[in-house]
Write a structure and sequence with these properties.
By secondary structure, the chain is mostly helical. It has four helices and no strands. It is elongated and about 55 Å long. The N and C termini lie far apart (about 50 Å).
């Protein structure tokens, strides 16, 4: 159990940044895979990390980080759609 009493200014929400960072690193690794399944898992981990970073950014009042996470999520969704053979053949984007 982590004792936060020695860090009076630390809030539990501040701890969200650590799993967000780990998920982002793992997602980046998986998205670079040649296997479709691993890329799919990486996609969902990236979206989860976007949510965690947004929660932490809201708490820390890091509004630029929130905007960045929204943009990164949109880019990630666009990339997934362009790499899906069914979706990419029906849209010209």
């Amino acid at each position: 159990m982590i004792q936060l009493s020695c860090y009076p200014s630390m809030d539990y929400v501040d701890l969200i940044q650590w799993p967000a960072m780990v998920l982002t690193a793992i997602a980046a690794w998986l998205v670079g895979s040649q296997r479709r399944t691993k890329r799919g898992v990486g996609f969902w981990l990236f979206l989860l990390s976007n949510v965690l970073w947004t929660l932490w950014g809201w708490h820390a009042r890091a509004y630029a980080l929130i905007v960045l996470q929204i943009c990164l999520a949109a880019i990630n969704i666009r990339g997934a759609q362009k790499n899906d053979p069914v979706l990419s053949s029906s849209s010209g984007a």
